[in-house]
């Protein structure tokens, strides 16, 4: 019975690790796929946890914010390069845009850079600080430091700047610098002073007031492909320094007339060749000295430079020729007007004679009919 009972036992072990199914005589193999899937799922979850931990614990990469660059009003044909710079072209900055002083925002949008901020930065009370300055010009000053306005020049050629100083005082002045080299200055109550100089792409023009009121009337650019080459031309701008005494030195800026005329044949030599003598030139670092300090009092003396006299003389001649031309045009127009008035009078007299003749003929015809 025991043997019979064992023979009827539904599951008996079989060699090979399997089980014998009742009534079928086949083996059931162990399910290894479920264990593999479970292990793979646990490993995937563990990997996701590790990745999330790395992302959370790793600090974000810091990307510095680029400061906004000044917007420069450029003429047509002046395009930026692929590297983000500016292609050197014959087209310079816009003369009309940079001569628009209607607001400080307009000036900054055109390219002017202000070195200070304050209530007197843009066109303060005209009656107090700029009574003789035209309304179309810019004027401003700083109480604490030397007020400075800069402009990054684009293209290559010549620029002509009309600037001035509308304040009084023995130490009052406004100085123009090109790449840190003084070019011209305006002494007290010099409302309009002209300076013309060659420039290349990237040169920096700075106008600095010292105990004065900075005035900018206009700026004009004359650009051409043949004006300046890519490399510096020797002899165009030369700076000579000589000792005057133990405490002061003079810097003479000489513009070569031959080199300037070879670059711009349309410019008279009296305009291009100029010599400006400045005593004790102010360095770039010295422009931040506070007013009233001992260093500040050792500024450039208020002596009229020869170049200023030459430039003013040339501009006066130009103004005289322009006024003469205008007067000639006015005289010609007045003559034309008089001739037209005379012709109109003749036409009117002729019409009156025709009317009188017509009336006379009608009267004679009426008398003939009456007879």
From TrEMBL:
Transmembrane region(s): 35-56
Chain spans, region Disordered: 1-32
Biased composition (Basic and acidic residues): 21-32
Keywords: Membrane, Transmembrane, Transmembrane helix
Name of the protein in question: Uncharacterized protein
Organism of this sequence: Alexandrium andersonii
